[in-house]
Amino acid sequence: MEPRRMADTLRYVLMGTGPFAVPSFEAIRQQMDSTGDQIARVFVRPLPPVKSRGGPPPQPVREWAESHDLPVDAPASINDPETIASLTALNADLLVVCDYGQILKPDALQSARLGGINLHGSLLPAYRGAAPVQRALLSGDRETGVSVIHMTPRLDGGPIVASRTTPIRDDETSGELEVRLSEIGVDATLEAIGMLRTIQSLDSHGPLGEPQDPAKVSKAPRLSKAEAQIDWSATGREIDCLVRGMQPWPVAFTHTVVNENKPPLRVAIRGVRTETYAADASNIGRVMEHEGLAIGCGDGQVVIERLQPAGKKEMSGLDFKRGHRLTAGQQLIAP
């Protein structure tokens, strides 16, 4: 193996699987002509077993790498001794990790001269974990952002090297916000790389970045389908945040009673508008007097603009109301 290089040019190993990583990885690739940097290899998660006719799920980073003829590897575990040996043999200066899906242990991080950086979709230490974008929306936050950390074995716990902040738009879904944050993350990633470029040795440089405040840590566990069920006693804003936060997956839902002789119908709720007034608890879950499809909630009513009944196409709330001849006062939401 060649000795570690101490030059201004960098040799990268990129690690990612999902779409959040692609804009930053592409920015690194595009600047290689001007910097002299190299991408030694791209690591992605292995493809899961195919369980449907639709084939394996997309892997945007794999597709991006293959489209640019970059070498791709997909080990079952990045921390296996054989994988660590392969990583070390690449003689990389820096690991750039984003949306990868595996936690790197110390031996993996030490395989590169400068260790690794990770682009995360929140303003750390808030929302450490797998679903930071969704959790920010579900919590009703008004702003969020991205953080680039110098990685440690603790999940999302390393010092912050660069960050960017952005307001959350009132009509933004998790999917839309995630795309926007991935683009905002490009500048933060390149800023972090620029800082690391001049470092000859981590041992001689000392701590990097700003340590995270442990008192401000919050978790962002992966979403579950059960969390997507709407509680109509919640406030209109809470319901709106749930509907937007659960898109594109698993999608907020409720059960409606449109025929007393049939079981409740599961309906996916894809778009709502809130209207607040002096609420009456007896109206929760009932159809309200409104030109559209309005349902009573904890602090007023929620107008359902788009929905999708099980087994049917997406439609407007008004079309659903007309099709089922719903009237004011009707108990629509199943208890």
TrEMBL record:
Assigned keywords, A-Z: Protein biosynthesis, Transferase
Enzyme Commission number(s): 2.1.2.9
GO molecular function: methionyl-tRNA formyltransferase activity
Residues involved in (6S)-5,6,7,8-tetrahydrofolate binding: 122-125
Pfam family, one: Formyl_trans_C
Broadest EC class assigned to this enzyme: transferase
GO cellular component: cytosol
Occurrences of domain Formyl transferase N-terminal (ranges): 38-192
Keyword presence, Transferase: yes
Biological function: Attaches a formyl group to the free amino group of methionyl-tRNA(fMet). The formyl group appears to play a dual role in the initiator identity of N-formylmethionyl-tRNA by promoting its recognition by IF2 and preventing the misappropriation of this tRNA by the elongation apparatus.
Family in the record: Belongs to the Fmt family.
HAMAP family for this protein: Formyl_trans (MF_00182)
Protein name: Methionyl-tRNA formyltransferase
Organism encoding this protein: Rhodopirellula baltica SH28
Underlying gene: fmt
